[in-house]
Amino acid sequence: RPWLLGQVASALDGRAAPEVPEGEALADLVVAHYEEMLSFYGRDLGLRVARKHLNWYLEAAGLAAHRGPIVTGTDPARVVRALRQAFGAQEGAAA
C-alpha cells in the first residue's frame, strides 16, 4: 500500500486523506510498479522480485483468488492482462 504514508502524513497534518486507488486506477498503479521492476531488475530477476509485490497487492485488494496466473506468469504481457482483468473484476463487483 504505497499510499499509506500519504494517509498518515495527512492525518498528522489535519488534512483530508488522499483517496485510496481502486479498480482501474489501482490496476494502473500495480502495472506501472510491475513494469518498473522488470525494467530495473531485468526480465528474469524482475519476474521473481515482482511476485511478492503482486501477491501483496492482490491480497490487500481481496483478489487472492486471481493470483495463480499472475504470480507464476513468465510472459509480462500476459501478467499485465491478468492484472487488468483481476482489478476490473474488483471494480465490477463494487458497482
Describe this structure in words.
With 95 residues, the protein is mainly α. The chain has one domain. The chain is 75% helix and 0% strand. It has five helices and no strands. α2 runs antiparallel to α3 and α2 packs antiparallel against α5. The longest helix has 19 residues. The radius of gyration is 14 Å and the shape is globular. The model has no long low-confidence stretch (mean pLDDT 86). It comes from Cereibacter sphaeroides (Rhodobacter sphaeroides).
State the main characteristics.
95 residues, mainly alpha, 5 helices, 75% helix, globular, DUS-like_FMN-bd, tRNA-dHydroUridine_Synthase_C, NifR3 protein
Q: Can you count the beta strands?
A: 0
> Which strand-content bin applies to the residues?
under 5%
Please tell me the total number of domains: 1
Q: How many helices does DSSP assign?
A: 5
End-to-end C-alpha gap? 22 Å
The description of the largest β-sheet is: none
Class based on secondary structure composition and strand pairing = mainly alpha
Helix content: over 70%
Shape from CA axes?
globular
Mean of residue pLDDT values: 86
Low-confidence region ranges: none
If you compute it from the alpha carbons, what radius of gyration comes out, rounded to the nearest whole angstrom? 14 Å
In N-to-C order, the SSE pattern is: HHHHH
